[in-house]
Amino acid sequence: MNHFLQSGAPVEMADAFRADGKIYVVITVLGIIFACLTLYLVYLDRRIKKLESQK
Amino acid sequence: MDIVSVPLEIMKNTWKYLGVALVFYSLIVGLLGPVPRLVILNETIRNLYFHVPMWFTMITLFGASVGYSIGSLRKNSLRHDLTAAVLAEVGVLFAVAGLLTGMVWAKFTWGAFWTNDPKLNGTAISMLIYLAYFVLRSSVEDPEKKARLSAVYNVFAFALMIVFIGILPRLTESLHPGNGGNPAFSNYDLDSNMRAVFYPAVLGWILIGFWIAQIKTRLSFLETPWD
């Protein structure tokens, strides 16, 4: 496995993308999606809690 | 809500907030943090933070499901049986997420969405075993009988899942890291930077999996006419 790493050939990574700062766009998008899903779970949790207290 | 129940409520839900915080952390540091430079894998190595926790969450949910199944047999409890079914259901949800993310990752590193690899086929068989659990449940009318039959089946399903996903792929040749002497996993497994993201991500997703299961269980309890 290590002969790949020892050959000295540069390994392609998203360095330019990171240098341009654009990776933050991706993080923001993922963060928004995850925040939406979390808020939806909180909303469901509260609605069910209301139903439970009625029973 | 009175002044005492608000902090109590927050404490009761701490594990949910912790799960969200951990996954949020893994989203940010998982994309920004340093990773080893490996050929073929390149930046896709970061999928480790998102693809692998799906499977850890699935196994934990399935394990909890078996726990409730055994509980339903011991206590003759229909509530335990329903909880076991919901936990298995959410486990399958995470398995689907794990399979789909794994297929995308495989396409760009192995060249195909699906290979007839023991790890992949073992997972597919396990999914069928779990789908049969739901078929079995829906085919028995009597709730007591349903609880007993499906609880016993669930124990077998879990044991078979461990064999198909955890044991058999390790005994044969496999492309999938961590199996059949493939060194890929141990190579980046040892990276302490990645561990600092991977383990929190696993714990975070497990907590979120249990949160989803808890919501669904409470909903099912409300829907069920207990007498």
Question: Which features would summarize this protein structure in a list?
Answer:
heterodimer; A: 55 residues; mainly alpha; B: 227 residues; 8 helices
Concise description?
The complex is a heterodimer of chains A (55) and B (227). By secondary structure, chain A is mainly α. Chain A contains three helices and no strands.
Walk me through this protein's architecture.
The complex is a heterodimer of chains A (55) and B (227). Chain A is mostly helical and 55 residues long. Chain A is 76% helix and 0% strand. The radius of gyration of chain A is 22 Å and the shape is rod-shaped. Chain B is mainly alpha-helical and 227 residues long. In chain B, helix 3 packs antiparallel against helix 4, helix 3 crosses helix 8 and helix 4 runs antiparallel to helix 8. The longest helix of chain B is centred in the middle third of the chain and has 32 residues. The chains are: A mainly alpha (55), B mainly alpha (227). The interface between A and B is medium-sized, with 23 and 24 residues.
**Largest inter-chain contact set:** A-B, 23 and 24 residues
Along the chain, the helix and strand elements of chain B come as HHHHHHHH
- SSE pattern of chain A, N- to C-terminal: HHH
As residue ranges, the low-confidence spans of chain B are none
Give the fraction of residues assigned to helices of chain A.
over 70%
Outline of chain A: rod-shaped
Oligomer: heterodimer
Instruction: Tally the helices of chain A.
Output: 3
Derived from helix and strand composition plus strand pairing, the structural class of chain A reads mainly alpha
Structural class of chain B: mainly alpha
CA-atom Rg of chain B in angstroms? 20 Å
Strand content of chain B: under 5%
Counting structural domains of chain B, the number is 1
User: What is the total tally of β strands of chain B?
Assistant: 0
| Outline type of chain B | flat
State mean pLDDT of chain B (0 to 100 scale): 89
Strand content of chain A: under 5%
What is the arithmetic mean of pLDDT of chain A? 80
